[in-house]
């Protein structure tokens, strides 16, 4: 006989429904329209995931919409999805984040289906989840009242004494566990991921101090498990990541979706990230060294594109590429209009791909080839530069002296971390090779 304390719930965040994709819209309206639809399709997939898994409840940790200008279609699609869950007896819990604070924008939804809780912004509130007459979970949450929330909202959460239950025990031959306590918050946990605005900042210790069992977080667009619960009152701390990628940024690449949290005996046993996206973003960094013409470069880029499309597991793909390395084709790439023409031809080559493959951008960071042996024998400043580079790259004593000089010129707090990096042999060799390449390019430019 199954226990009521064994169930799963779905944790999603950062839906950004109806994201406009303005940049792509200017050059490819059809692609932008498909991307805009993709955010809605990802939400539909989350709803279906909850239905398929017979989830006990669903939590959505902020940024339901992309901004204050919330489209009618997005709002009604969101309402209809939650209504579908409610009809199946699956309650849902929603907080709003910095993109969609409750006091800005407008709403086309005057009332939510029964079983839907949209948390307010005045204070943390708690709602029970009841199954077969037994409280299996308590979900707490708070929304943003305005965009720029700098308060540590995590400190407002706590484990309510009124829901305390004994440790799991046998009752009538069935193992019953305690009530699961879940916090839903849109926030930036210190150290979780660089590059995100510091909204509702907190630390892992702040979240642990609440003694909840699971933190369902939003704001960071990469699925991340910051902490696995180590026992009673030590929470799992999880970012679901966004449900659908929004740009070619590194944090937007890869699988996007939602988290299924599996509960056994009233405690989180494991979490599972499930793909819900329909479009993925990828970036190719291709070394053109050894290639001599634009048609060779195009062939290689197309081959890389099809590999990336295969890795996207049947999803549509938005792709960027950057070219690096030293190649005789650099002169052709540097011709006026060459990159734009190559990009247009790449788009033409995949125009009929299903699902679509869109080349969003191409950048050239390649350089002309240099005959290093010839340069070393010239007896000029260039040969002296190469001799110095060879010395500090190959001679341990010379390298040590140079590294010590560099570290002596930086703040002490930075020197320790920088020294660890620079004294790694592979990293040091790469740094010298890169610096030498840049210097040779500058010298080459000066000779023209």
Task: Give a short synopsis of this structure.
By secondary structure, this protein is α/β, with parallel strands linked by helices. It has helices at 22-27, 29-52, 72-87, 204-209, 294-311, 330-333, 338-349, 372-376, 381-394, 396-408, 412-422, 425-447; strands at residues 7-12, 58-61, 92-95, 116-118, 125-131, 134-141, 169-171, 174-176, 180-186, 188-189, 201-202, 214-218, 224-227, 236-239, 257-264, 267-275, 279-287, 316-324, 357-364. Strand 13 (224-227) and strand 14 form a beta hairpin.
What's the helix and strand layout?
Blueprint: E1 7-12, H1 22-27, H2 29-52, E2 58-61, H3 72-87, E3 92-95, E4 116-118, E5 125-131, E6 134-141, E7 169-171, E8 174-176, E9 180-186, E10 188-189, E11 201-202, H4 204-209, E12 214-218, E13 224-227, E14 236-239, E15 257-264, E16 267-275, E17 279-287, H5 294-311, E18 316-324, H6 330-333, H7 338-349, E19 357-364, H8 372-376, H9 381-394, H10 396-408, H11 412-422, H12 425-447
Parallel strand pairs: 1-2, 2-3, 3-4, 6-9, 9-12, 10-11, 12-14, 17-18, 18-19
Antiparallel strand pairs: 1-15, 5-6, 7-8, 13-14, 15-16
């Amino acid at each position: 006989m199954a226990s009521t304390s064994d169930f799963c719930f779905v944790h999603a965040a950062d839906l950004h429904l109806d994201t406009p994709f303005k940049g792509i819209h200017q050059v490819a309206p059809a692609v932008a329209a498909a991307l805009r639809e993709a955010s809605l399709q990802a939400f539909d997939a989350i709803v279906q995931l909850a239905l398929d898994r017979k989830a006990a409840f669903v939590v959505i940790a902020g940024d339901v919409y992309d901004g204050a200008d919330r489209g009618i279609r997005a709002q009604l699609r969101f309402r209809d999805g939650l209504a579908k869950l409610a009809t199946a007896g699956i309650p849902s819990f929603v907080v709003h984040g910095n993109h969609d604070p409750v006091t800005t924008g407008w709403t086309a939804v005057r009332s939510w289906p029964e079983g839907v809780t949209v948390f307010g912004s005045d204070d943390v509130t708690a709602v029970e989840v009841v199954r077969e007459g037994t409280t299996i979970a308590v979900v707490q949450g708070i929304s943003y009242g305005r965009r720029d929330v700098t308060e540590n909202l995590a400190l407002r959460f706590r484990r309510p004494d009124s829901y305390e239950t004994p440790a799991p025990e046998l009752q009538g031959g069935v193992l019953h566990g305690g009530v699961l306590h879940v916090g839903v918050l849109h926030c930036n946990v210190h150290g979780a991921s660089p590059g995100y605005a510091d909204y509702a900042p907190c630390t892992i210790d702040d979240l642990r101090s609440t003694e909840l069992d699971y933190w369902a977080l939003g704001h960071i667009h990469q699925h991340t498990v910051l902490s696995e619960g180590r026992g009673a009152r030590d929470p799992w701390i999880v970012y679901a990541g966004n449900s659908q990628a929004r740009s070619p940024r590194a944090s937007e690449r890869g699988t996007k979706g939602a988290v299924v949290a599996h509960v056994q005996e009233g405690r989180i046993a494991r979490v599972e990230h499930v793909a819900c996206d329909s479009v993925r973003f990828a970036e190719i960094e291709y070394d053109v060294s050894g290639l001599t013409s634009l048609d060779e470069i195009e062939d290689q880029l197309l081959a890389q594109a099809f590999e990336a499309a295969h890795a996207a597991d049947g999803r549509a793909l938005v792709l960027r590429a950057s070219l690096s390395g030293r190649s005789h084709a650099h002169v052709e790439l540097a011709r006026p209009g060459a990159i734009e023409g190559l990009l247009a031809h790449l788009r033409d080559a995949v125009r009929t791909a299903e699902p679509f493959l869109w080349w969003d951008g191409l950048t050239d960071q390649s350089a002309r080839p240099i005959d290093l042996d010839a340069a070393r024998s010239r007896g000029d400043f260039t040969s002296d530069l190469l001799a110095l580079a060879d010395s500090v790259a190959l001679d341990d004593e010379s390298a040590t002296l140079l590294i010590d000089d560099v570290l002596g010129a930086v703040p002490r707090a930075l020197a320790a971390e920088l020294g660890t990096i620079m004294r790694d042999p592979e990293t040091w060799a790469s740094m010298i090779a890169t610096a030498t390449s840049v210097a040779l390019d500058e010298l080459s430019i000066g000779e023209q």
